[in-house]
From TrEMBL:
Places the protein is found: Cell envelope
GO cellular component, one term: outer membrane-bounded periplasmic space
PROSITE patterns reported in the protein's UniProt record: FE_B12_PBP
Name used for this protein in its record: Putative ABC transporter substrate-binding protein
Xref: PANTHER family: FERRIC ENTEROBACTIN-BINDING PERIPLASMIC PROTEIN FEPB, IRON III DICITRATE-BINDING PERIPLASMIC PROTEIN
Family label: Belongs to the bacterial solute-binding protein 8 family.
């Protein structure tokens, strides 16, 4: 409900139409527009005129646009997002925010269809969380329109910074600040309402398979930032392993090192959970024996909402995860 109120308030204040960046902060057309330049890992983006047709390369970038009252000209999709959303690539917190008939354009991280993006005729492209953005791809996209993107690597810049960068690029600075403030208030409320989180250690166990599991291994990963924002701490063991992009692959023989106050299992689907539950290495963990385990599958949306955070996804997900985490933490 909170995310709905946030979006309605922002959209009403912005009076936006699909892809349009006019608002009370700016005036229609180019009147009052001053050139805006944003930094990026592959080059600066200079927006000389007010964006009217904005293409988002990822769901998270679309979220940040929606959060400041801009409706992207297309729904970005890829096989993973289609699989998690029943083929729509629209997550629960985005439902009702795209006008009926908004086209879906594939934005694959492995083979980006540049021609399909160009066909939407964008005057701004946003990719702060798009993993398929390389220097060559950036160069091709920049020939179509300015590309607002990350300063470090995809989905590694703090979500607050990315939201404000995008807001500045579309002339919605005040809306960006308001969206960030609303999300921060939600996270702070979640923490204050759940003092049991304070100082509790956790591990996130992701995509179990016959070969092993993936784990969160950095508090500087966006998922790690959110969880530490709740007052919890990633286990020392998880932070000690070789880490790449905030995640590490762990073989089953190392499972005994994964104990913590709370374990969060994130299978791709519910059918993957037996890969954990059938193994004594998992069932013998003290946290598992205490029942201090939270299971949230990827299709439920919460893992994506927190691992690829935006003002909209955080407001939606916080209240959905907190009760489960609180119940598990009480068993630690």
């Amino acid at each position: 409900m909170a995310v709905t109120f946030l979006v309605i308030a922002l959209l009403l204040s912005a009076c936006s139409t699909s892809g349009t960046a006019s608002s009370p902060e700016t005036t229609p057309g180019d009147a009052g527009w001053s050139s805006v330049t944003t930094t990026g890992a592959f080059g600066d983006a200079t927006i000389e005129s007010r964006p009217e047709r904005v293409f988002a390369l990822s769901t998270t970038d679309a979220d940040m646009l929606l959060a400041v009252g801009i409706v992207p000209i297309a729904v970005p999709s890829m096989p993973q997002t289609d699989a998690a959303t029943g083929g729509t690539s629209i997550y629960p917190w985005q439902v009702g925010l795209y006008p009926e008939g908004t086209p879906k354009v594939e934005a694959s991280t492995t083979e980006l269809n540049i021609e399909a993006i160009a066909a939407t005729d964008p005057d701004l492209i946003v990719g702060t969380a798009f993993f398929g953005l390389t220097k060559p791809i950036y160069g091709k996209l920049a020939e179509i329109a300015p590309v607002v993107h990350y300063d470090t690597v995809a989905n590694s810049d703090d979500w607050r910074d990315s939201t404000r960068k995008i807001a500045r690029a579309v002339g919605r600075v005040d809306a960006g600040d308001a969206a960030v403030a609303t999300a921060e208030a939600t996270l702070a409320k979640t923490r204050s309402n759940n003092p049991i989180f304070e100082g509790k250690t956790f591990n996130a166990v992701i995509s179990p398979s016959a070969d092993g599991v993936w784990i969160l291994c950095s508090e500087q990963d966006n998922l790690g930032r959110v969880m530490t924002g709740f007052g919890m701490k990633l286990s020392e063991y998880a932070q000690s392993v070789e880490c790449d992009g905030g995640k590490a692959e762990l073989s089953w023989e190392n499972m005994s090192d994964l104990d913590a106050d709370v374990l969060w299992a994130i299978p791709d689907t519910a059918d993957q959970m037996p890969e954990l539950t059938k193994r004594k290495l998992w069932t013998s963990l003290p946290a598992v024996q205490r029942g201090a385990v939270v299971i949230v599958t990827k299709p439920e949306g919460v893992p994506f909402a927190l691992a690829f955070p935006s003002p909209l996804s955080l407001v939606w997900a916080a209240d959905r995860l907190a009760p489960k985490m609180s119940e598990a933490a009480a068993r630690s």
